Amino acid sequence: MNRLFIKYLVSLLAISIIPAFLGGMLLLSFLKVNMNGLKSELNTQVSQVLTREISYKDEAIAQTEGMYVQEEIDRIGNKISAMAMAPGFVDLELLDISAFVENFISNEPAVLEIAVVDKWGEVVFDKVNSLSVMSEEYSDLVDEDLLKTIQAKESYLSDVSISSRSQLPYVTLGQPIIQFGGNFAGGIILNLNLSFIWDIAASKQVGESGKLYIISSEGQLISHPSTRELYQNSDYSKYEYIREIMATKNGTIQTSTSLVSYFTNKYGWITIIEIPVEQALATVNDNQLLVESFISDTNRSMGFVAVAILAFILILTIVISIYVTRWLITPIVNLTEATRTVSSGNLTMVISKNSRDEIGELTDSFNLMTEQLRLKQEELLKSNAYIKLQAEELLDRYNSDLEQFAYVTTHDLIEPLRMITSYIQLLQRRYRNIYDDEAKEFMRFVVEGVDRMHNIINDLFEYSHIRTDVKDFEKVDVNEVLAATTKKLSKEIIDSGATITSIGLPELRAVQSNLVQVFQNLLGNAIKFRQKEVPLQIKITCDDREHDWLFSVEDNGMGFDPQYKEKVFEIFKRLNKRDDYPGSGMGLAISKNIVERHGGKIWVDSRLGIGTTFYFTIKKY
Predict the structure, then answer these.
(1) What is the pLDDT of residue 580?
(2) Which CATH topology does 51-278 take?
(3) pLDDT-derived band of residue 621, with 50, 70 and 90 as boundaries?
(4) CB count in 10 Å sphere of residue 588
């Protein structure tokens, strides 16, 4: 057995035998414990479960009543929030405010008093609700904390206060008034009578002798079934179990005399249901004897069965684990390891066949697959090597032939042009006193035509001669490229009064002479096709993109019709008369060839009479 076999066998035995063995030992140990102790423990657990069920019911009641209180406060808050968005409140129109308030307090007798303040906290409207049973004289509703809160554009809810007149609890609510531009315009403030909470406590019957009451987050009694308790003993934070409730927020605790369930709403007010322990646990005590009898009989019967089952499971698990590991896991592990070896590139891997079942057939298929892959790989490597060699030889021969052809063709074309030029110049010198002005003009036309043909042939040779290879690239500072270009064009720049600026030119890998040629053509075009009455401005920028560099050469020259933006890059294509703007018409075609050989693209954006911007990219290597 190899290491992997042992590993999986041990794992399988651990998964199956160890839990079964430990469970059986725990079961046997449990059954050996003193029966009275077992009964006591189980009875305690049953008691806790039943107590928990009772607690769930009381907690649900506390939550229901606590949420009702919260929803009533939210309802009033939502109403004043809606009023705050009314145009009359936003603009602080007193007539509209008065109408809204009269309608509001007529439907909400719990509202004691309502006031509206401006953005400085000055009261602009105040109304006492005469329908409220707790109606008081006008009071100062605005304090510093409330004003800061609504000026911060947030809703406000005060701690519970006790009315000096009725000795009943109330709270203060505040809602900011926000103008349409988001500016603070003022606020709506009201005192809310909490007597409806008192009614909940007084009317809610919890069991035979339980009680429901509500306290604030500070432990102040808000409502209680006993009015006397509310008036004489309002501070409940002095009780230890109340402090525990305030700390834990939700749940159930058991004191020496009572089972206490409680729920805290979002305002921090705690609804408490308190039931005497005897009443709460009456159901538990009634079921105690029945549970004890059932547990005793059940445990006695299960003890013997558990031992027999444990022994059978233990033996069966060992036998099955060995069989499964030997006949199933071992071949699968071997195949898995072999697959990893093949995926790493080792195609000489062969798996030994140990059976004639499905695993054996899978082993044969795997070995056949690796052998075929190995042969295919060898053939592919040989083919790739041969194709690469042939391609390199063909490319070298093609480039060499093309270069030789271009050189010979250029030389053969230029030589007759030189001869024509020489003879014309000889005729001009020897017979200058014989030719009339018209003949001299014809001779000049011939010389100029020969010069243009000479320039065209040179440009064609340059166009066909451009070849770049990544291996020829070097690190180039485009700032130095621009400096070399402006030096070549220094006379044209000075004569035209052009101003050239550059931003963010990088270092990149390219053929430096090629980049100089591109910038020379683009800057030369900008100078050549400038507007005579406007100072020429040329701006060169570069944007660092993920896969390439994006250059732009922008000028404020004469521009051209956008319909010709593709034509300008074609060989010999001109948009102007040759006599007005000299040149062979090859500059942009050569620039396009260079940019494409550097893995990029070139394009133009131009508007007649406004200017031209050439864009080109250089691939990152």
Answers:
(1) 47
(2) Beta-Lactamase (3.30.450)
(3) confident
(4) 21
CA dihedral sign, ordered 452, 455, 461, 466: negative
Element housing 527 (H / E): helix 512-528
Of 459, 68, 402, nearest in space to 267 by CA: 68
Count CB neighbours of 137 within 10 A: 7
Question: What tokens were used for 130?
Answer: 């005469």
Q: Is the dihedral of CA 376, 381, 386, 391 positive or negative?
A: positive
Biggest distance spanned by C-alpha atoms of the chain: 149
Provide the pLDDT for residue 137.
Answer: 46
d(CA 275, CA 252): 11
User: How far, in Å, are 51, 114, 190, 214, 262 from residue 66 at the CA level?
Assistant: 22, 25, 22, 8, 9
- Contact, 191 vs 209, CB < 8 A? no
Quick check: 559 and 528 in contact, CB under 8 A? no
Q: Is 266 helix (H, G, I), strand (E, B) or coil?
A: coil
Both structure tokens of 368: 């056949």
Round to the nearest angstrom and report the end-to-end CA distance of the chain.
54
Tell me which residue has tokens 């250029």: 410
How is residue 91 written in tokens?
């603009």
Nearest CA-CA partner of 222 in 168, 273, 172:
168
**Burial class of 573 by CB neighbour count within 10 A (0 to 12, 13 to 18, 19+):** middle
pLDDT in tens, 206-265: 777 788 889 888 888 888 888 788 778 888 999 999 899 999 889 888 888 888 899 998
How large is the angle between the packed helices 512-528 and 587-597, nearest 10 degrees?
Answer: 150
Give which of 236, 96, 108 is closest to 173, Cα–Cα. 108
> Of 597, 592, 520, 608, nearest to 557 (Cα)?
608
* Distance (Å) of CA 119 to CA 23, 102, 280: 73, 23, 55
Whether the pLDDT of residue 373 is over 90: the answer is no
Please give the structure tokens belonging to residue 11: 């794992």
Residue keyed to tokens 């606020």: 187
222 closest CA partner among 156, 274, 269, 158 = 269
Query: Hey, which CATH number is domain 466-619, 2.60.120.920, 3.30.565.10, 3.10.180.10, 3.90.550.10?
Result: 3.30.565.10
Dihedral sign from CA coordinates of 19, 21, 22, 25 = positive
The helix/strand/coil state of 376 is helix
Give the separation between CA 104 and CA 101, rounded to whole angstroms. Answer: 5
Identify which of 104, 179, 165 has the alpha carbon closest to the alpha carbon of residue 134: 165
Q: In whole angstroms, how large is the CA radius of gyration of the chain?
A: 49
Token output for 487: 């030096």
Q: Which ranges of 262-357 would DSSP assign to H, the alpha helix?
A: 277-280, 282-324, 330-343
Q: Which residues pair with 501 in a beta bridge?
A: 539
Report how far residue 108's alpha carbon sits from residue 143's, in angstroms, rounded to the nearest whole number. 24
Do 51 and 284 form a contact (C-beta atoms < 8 A)? yes
d(CA 529, CA 143): 76
pLDDT for 434 equals: 74
Helices of type H across 85-172: 87-90, 94-107, 144-151
Question: What are phi and psi for residue 111, nearest 5 degrees?
Answer: -80, 120
CB count, 10 Å around CB of 504? 12
The residue whose two tokens read 């494409």 is 596
